[in-house]
Amino acid sequence: MTRVIHTADTHIGYRQYHAEERRLDFIRAFERVIDDAIDAGVDAVVHAGDLFHDKRPELADLQGTVAALARLRRADIPFLGIVGNHERKRETQWLDLFEDLGLATRLGEQPTVIGDFAFYGLDYVTPSYRDQFQLTFTPTTEATTAILVAHGIIKGFPHGDWELDSMLEASPVSFDAVLLGDYHEHEIKYIDDTVYTYSGSTERVSATETVERGYNLVDVGDTVSITHRAVPDTRRFVFTEIDLVEAEGTEHVKTRLQEYDLEDAVVIVTLQGAGEPVSPADIETHALDRGALVARVRDQREIDDDDEASIAVSFADPDRAVRQQLEQERLSDAVMQIDGIVRDMTIADSNVRDRVHERIKALLEDDPTALDVPDEPVDDARDTEPGEPVSVDASDEDTQASEAPDDQDDPADGTTEESPLRNVAGQASMEDYL
Description:
Number of helices: 11
Shape: globular
Strand content: 15-25%
CATH topology of the largest domain: Purple Acid Phosphatase, chain A, domain 2
Largest sheet: 6 strands, mixed
Distance between the termini: 40 Å
């Protein structure tokens, strides 16, 4: 029997809530998956994209990733991966650097055989390109089970828009299982005779991700068997919903928080019902004084019925409608990031100006033209909308939103985009990597 770990969406380098401890949490979660792989003696670790949260990870995060992959190599456990939308760069990827160092294998159209498995890879494909390429996987007789590793949210799963199963009908390889990344919850579905599964993220990228984080154990014997396991010792989140009634306000919320151990936790307080006006800053300060690492208050109480009638809209998700409209405009990725900060309900109003100022300063230091109107429409790789539980970009509690691939041409405009399947011709220089 062959056994591998399937993981994805580790988002190493994400400084969630601008907290250094949260940045460290993401690399620690990845290290715990590596620990489990070594302890279990699996045959391989397979990563389905978004290893990093950003295509420009900090040196400390690169060092931590290299150290974790080196431990896998010493244990003689291969690390196989593909490129997700968050980390995707033009042509040369960080995964290529790890492969050159002997720490990883970047999956593609040629099979990588591990025991009974033949693995193939499909990097993140922009929506505008999905109908314009053909799958050219090379069949093999060296393994009994063909596995595809891919990144994107497919139809049949929440918020899915990618008809990957239809694409695979034309593939020269018939796949027994598809190991997926991009959706942050664990899911398994059978489509025809193929099992499709998301491992979920290894840390909470959004406050909407309330269930425990984990990865998949994939076994093959007579059939493919998938078991989900929790990542041990991730950062504790305290989620509390408080239904306020008349005359209840800030002090009542503080009293309710006494019921919880907040030490070193990320505390998310959701207010519902009616009650008095509440000061989020007072509640957050109270939680921090009791040892919380981070505290956020989300006031979801209904507005007055008379006012509600005057602002009724004809669609269910106004944030999604706004996002769809913005994506049709010629806006730079930097402007889209700033828009995300302004509309992020997890950021207190009093902090929005400072957050925007910090982000603009960082963007201009990195690229003086970051705020310029692009010559061509930006093909934004963000594939979900604000408020959706799977979203990384939309529900980021940080200004460090994913940068869309800024240098990939859109085939719909008549230009040429690099195939999502790896072009293995030639070697890149170290300057290209960095």
